[in-house]
Model the fold of this input.
Amino acid sequence: MGVFAPVIHKEDDSTYARLYCDTCDVDSLKSTNDSLKKSRKTESSCILYGVPKVEYSFEECTPFPTALKACLSYIGQKVDYGYIMAASGAAFRLRWNKEYWDGGNVDIMNIYEDEYESFIRSFKAVNRKYEILKREHHTKEDFIEFIKKEINAGRPVIALGIIGPPEACVITGYRDNGKELLGWNCFQENKEFSQGTKIDDSGYFICNRWWDNEETCAVMSIGESYDYNIDSKSILKNAIDIMTKETISVKNNTRLYAGGGEAYDLWCKSITDQKECDNNNIVPILIERLMCQNDAQTMIGEGRYYASCFIDSIGNNNENVKEECTEVSKCFKAIMQCSFDMNKIKGGFEQTEELLNTFIKPEVRNSIGKLIIKAKEHEYQACKLMKDIYYKLE
Done:
């Protein structure tokens, strides 16, 4: 149907637990894959081989944290995906456009009024200097010089766009003096977005039309180590802010999003409004509705699981709030369960015609609406306890 989104599959908690680390290791660690890391350089090209693949997967459904994790792994720094989810604020987000059905609700550039704040918080949380070039202020030549400088120094570059929507991807090399780029992108094999894109023997995409894609809006470098002194208490405070702020204005009021309890209410109202999902609506419009539903499930499904992991880590390291952290973690996991229960009602997470025919049934969407409100109640209780935890932390 021309719409693509991450898929969440449920496994037991032990699977996620193995993926999560309590803290971010900022020491340079020798990678076990050093033998795979090599670069190939000529006068007009440089390619870094061995950068971990960036793609949607069971464990990682949000592109930027997985892109940052891959880049850091390549340069020798071990950082957990769940930690970046918490530090960026992505683990605590729920956004719903107040004015129209928006396939960008899930984008972490809509967490804060400053579109780039989630990226900045992430770089600081992993104790790395950074530089961000934005398309609105720079030329294609600026982007090329920036990319060449970083790649030549042995550092992959994070970009927004290149192929498909303005989601994070990794640039691992260039050819023809930067006119052609290589790397990993979550959409590199989606025919809807990858026209003219080739796949290298390494698996990297090869793209020479990356600037023609207007969604290519920024490139970011990962610089030297620097102690920004980001601790769990500051991440917790930010989480509370994200979960309680009910209106977020992005790009000078050009986009208005509901957050907090209002986001749950607006999501529920939109899904249960029969006029919005009437059988007579055009199929692509109905698919758009279903995509927004699935994206919201991603935010509270994947997000709240990693939120629970972050809260568990606080409890494990602070005996005076361990009991409260356990209760908050239960609330977050209950929210995640609501997301999975929505799949049971509508028949899965895919965007097929069969599932769409189930989704548009009023009784199905009304049942989903009840789960949305149930998740909202768990979130309210979690946030209340998180405020108590914050004030008890030293």
User: Anything to note?
Assistant: Residues 269 and 369 are 8 Å apart (CA to CA). The mean pLDDT is 90.
